Each structure stands twice: as structure tokens, then as C-alpha cells.
Amino acid sequence: MAAESVYDEKAAACALENAGFGERLKTMPEGLRTQLYKYFYEDGVELSGGEGQKVAIARCLYKDAPYAILDEPTAALDPVAEADIYQRMNQFIQGKGAIYISHRLSSCHFCRRIMVFDGGRLLETGTHEELLGRQGLYYKLWNAQAKYYQS
């Protein structure tokens, strides 16, 4: 999972598959040993922003840490890929802690607890339904984004 490290190839391939990168991995010239990005390697393979995010998520899954902190983990993904990643992550982080930092409120639906910050201050906390019911900042932000999906 890193150029200089020893890793379990089966576990790495499984993590990449679980992060939605399995099909792309099959097209890589050296499979798991393919160097990524020309910035680092002259013959490195360039990934799209979404592919890079899937690799980053795979690293998180591979590490199997008790906590995961993901900052805008789906910012470069289309809405279908984003929903798929969140479903996959929700499945694989069972029994662990995860913090998702996101401005895309659609990703909050599956979270057990949402914390709304503004100007570095915690303003609200609760479930999606609780925060909508309070009609505070979360409610305003949710509706500002949701209106573009309503006909």
C-alpha cells in the first residue's frame, strides 16, 4: 500500500475491491505493484480524483484501525459512486469509530451522530432527523442543498 513497505497482497487487493477500485486494479500494468502518479515516478499511472479517493479509502480499510477520520472522502466522486462508497464504508466500519468531515450533507443520512460546526464552534449535534426537526443551521444547509434535487 506504500512504495517502501511490506504488505499483505491479498488483504490489499481485498481492500481495493471493497473501496470500489477492483475493476480499475485489473487494468493496472503491474497490478498491486503499479507505481502511482508521475509526480513521484516517471512511469507512474495517473488516477482520476475519484480513483485517488478510492485508493485512500482502501488504505483506511487495509489498516483496519479502530478509528477512521475521513476528510471530504467523496469530494471527487459522482453521486452514484459517492452513495456506493458510503454504503461500503458503513459496512466495513461496523464496531469501529469513524469521523466524516463533509460539506455534502447527503452523506449524513447514515451517520449515528452529526456535529455541526460554524466558525470553529460546535452549534448542533444529533441525528439527521433531530437536526432537521430543530430547524437550525443544519436544517438551513440541508434545504439549501436539497432544493437542487427537487423538481
Secondary-structure blueprint:
Elements: H1 9-18, H2 22-26, H3 49-63, E1 67-71, H4 79-92, E2 97-101, E3 114-118, E4 121-126, H5 128-134, H6 137-146
Parallel strand pairs: 1-2
Antiparallel strand pairs: 3-4
Walk me through what this model shows.
This protein has 151 residues and is an alpha+beta fold. The protein starts with 8 loop residues before the first helix and ends in a 5-residue tail after the last helix. It has a domain of 103 residues: 3-Layer(aba) Sandwich (Rossmann fold). α1 packs across α3. The strands form 2 sheets. It has a two-stranded parallel sheet with strand order 1-2. A two-stranded antiparallel ribbon has the order 3-4. α4 links the parallel β1 and β2. It is elongated and about 55 Å long.
pLDDT average, as an integer?
Answer: 87
What integer value in Å does the Rg equal? 18 Å
Summarize the amount of helix as a percent range: 40-55%
C-alpha termini separation = 44 Å
The quaternary organization reads as single chain
Shape: elongated
**What is the CATH superfamily of the domain at 9-111?**
P-loop containing nucleotide triphosphate hydrolases
Q: Which class of secondary structure composition applies to the elements?
A: alpha+beta
Sheet of most strands: 2 strands, parallel
Helix-strand pattern, N to C?
HHHEHEEEHH
Question: How many beta-strand segments?
Answer: 4
User: In CATH's first tier, which class of the domain at 9-111 applies?
Assistant: Alpha Beta
In the predicted model, the low-confidence regions spanning at least 5 consecutive residues are none
